[in-house]
Amino acid sequence: MDRTDRFINNRAPKLLLGFFLMLFLCFLIGGWFLSGMLAGEIVHDQIGSMLALAGGGAFLDEPDTERIRAGEELFSAYGIHAEMSASLMPQYSRIRNLLFLLISCISGSICLLGCAFSLRRLDRIYTELEELRADCFTIAEELEGKAALRGEDFGCVRRICEGVNLIAGRMAHLSGNLYQEKQFLKDFLTDFSHQMKTSLTVVRLNSDLLHEAEHLPEAKKHQLSEEIMLHLDSMEELVLSTLKLAKLNADAVVYTQTDTDLCMTCNAAIRRMQPLLRQKAVAAQLEAPDPVSLPHDRVWLCEAVCNLLKNAADHSECTELHMELTAIPGAVKLSIADNGKGMPQSEIPQLFERFGKKSGSAVMQSAGVGLAIAKQIIEAHNGEICVYSEIGKGTRFEILFLQ
Predict the structure, then answer these.
(1) Which three-class secondary structure state does DSSP give residue 89?
(2) Phi, psi of 322 (to 5 degrees)
(3) In whole angstroms, what is the distance from residue 340 CA to residue 317 CA?
């Protein structure tokens, strides 16, 4: 947009020009009356000088009252006196016009310079705003970058640029978050479909065998039916666990934290996992000398402890699970240790990734999201979880809740 377009498409330059035109008109009106007053004073001084000269005064002397009165007596027959109207004198109009022209030129120059300076400053502001607009289009297209800081320090244009940069920074942050969420959703669906694929394939194959093979032995039919049920249970667990993880990732969980004994929550988790522990021949015990009070949501924290116990029972090949609860100054420590096979140190960083546990069997032993769910729940309770493991000596999870 050039200067002509900026003048036509914006009201401020027109208003500014109209303001200076009105100001110049006011100067002209005021100048006309002021020139009349000044011309009257000048002509009255001339009349007084001429009367004093006629009354016997010297040409270069200051007119005094006596000389003026003497002159008035000489010209009394002609109606000439010191208080006569200045407009009757022939030089009055010439003097007034000269003074008005001088006042008009001075006021016109002031208004012209003021208008030019103001329009130039306004045009500079519009130019900076147009450049800022171009920067905004670039930022909107690329979703990155910043606008150049323009204008005077602490000026409106500078503050607008700073505001645009703040919005641009937040847009870039949101764009990065959206990209991460998109990538997360892509990976999530890929992993989820991969986990479901094996069980769906087995269910379909077994179903086809049951429908097509009429003369299968009853034992074989029973085996195929059990495999179908086992895979259906695994898929159900996967779907429910995945929904929980999605809910946690979306920050859609509202935790109701009450000051409760953590021992009760841990015992509830052990009782909840007893069927699985009996099936795996795993003995679990909790060691807690005194009641340990901690503000927490019993339902969700019990879910986290259950997932840790289930992970140990499914993958560690252990026979014992030892839980220890200790209150230390400013924190509460929960330790869950097993006597299983342990794991290499290289596997620990990927332990809490969703679908990170790959099973070599045809049947999914777990959904692969339990530890990811446990980690998010623990962190929501102002806790941190650490893993210590050694091949052949088992694995220990240590959870520290800050109070």
Answers:
(1) coil
(2) -115, 120
(3) 5
How far apart are alpha carbons 129 and 221 in whole angstroms? 79
75 SS3 class: coil
Cα 283 from chain centroid?
A: 51
Cα–Cα distance for residue pair 296/71, rounded to 1 Å = 114
Question: In this structure, what are the phi and psi dihedrals at residue 56, rounded to the nearest 5 degrees?
Answer: 105, 5
CA-CA distance, 171 to 89, in Å (whole number)? 79
82/69 Cα distance (integer angstroms): 8
> At which residue do the structure tokens 């029973």 appear?
222
What is the residue-level pLDDT of the chain in tens, covering all 403 positions?
577 777 778 888 889 999 999 999 999 999 999 999 999 888 888 888 888 888 777 766 777 788 878 887 888 777 778 788 888 888 889 999 999 999 999 999 999 999 999 988 888 888 888 888 888 888 888 877 888 888 888 888 888 888 888 998 888 888 888 888 788 777 777 767 766 776 777 778 778 777 766 667 777 777 778 778 877 877 777 787 777 777 777 777 888 889 989 999 999 999 989 988 998 999 999 998 778 889 999 989 998 999 899 989 988 889 999 999 998 888 999 999 999 999 998 888 888 876 654 443 334 445 567 888 899 899 999 999 999 999 988 999 999 999 7
| CA pair distance 20, 108, nearest whole angstrom | 9
Determine if the pTM surpasses 0.90.
no
User: Which residues contact residue 246 at a Cβ distance below 8 angstroms, ignoring those fewer than 6 apart?
Assistant: 188
Could you give phi then psi for residue 90, rounded to 5 degrees?
A: -65, -30
CA distance 333 to 18: 77
Residues paired with 315 in a beta bridge = none
